[in-house]
Amino acid sequence: MKQTKFSTLVDEKVLQELKQHSAESGKSISWLVSEAVAEYLVRTRTRPAFVSAMDDVLDRHADLLKRLAK
Predict the structure, then answer these.
(1) Residue 19 CB partners (closer than 8 Å, separation 6+)
(2) What is the pLDDT of residue 1?
(3) Do 12 and 23 contact (CB within 8 A), yes or no?
(4) Helix axes 29-60, 12-25, angle to 10 degrees
(5) Taking the CA atoms of the chain, what radius of gyration do you get in angstroms?
(6) What is the pLDDT of residues 11-49, one digit of tens each?
(7) How far are the Cα atoms of 22, 46, 50 from residue 31, in angstroms, in the given order?
(8) Residue 6, class by beta-carbon neighbours within 10 Å (0-12 exposed, 13-18 middle, 19+ buried)?
(9) Rounded Cα gap, residues 43 and 24, in angstroms
(10) Angle at which helices 62-69 and 29-60 pack, to 10 degrees?
(11) Distance from CA of residue 23 to its chain's centroid?
(12) Are 32 and 17 in contact (CB under 8 A)?
């Protein structure tokens, strides 16, 4: 995968924790940030789809769920 350089600002405490984790894990800060951003994108894109699907299920089975709750 082609890598592209970019810069951003981050809270000092977060950066210190990131540096410490990098040293402890033996993984570069670049690798850790790339993985974290990739996981964030998957999580934030998947969650709305899940919520929408869950809302559909709840709407379709509202009567059954009310009976089960009694």
Answers:
(1) 29
(2) 75
(3) no
(4) 110
(5) 20
(6) 999 999 999 999 999 999 999 999 999 999 988 887 777
(7) 9, 22, 28
(8) exposed
(9) 25
(10) 90
(11) 23
(12) no
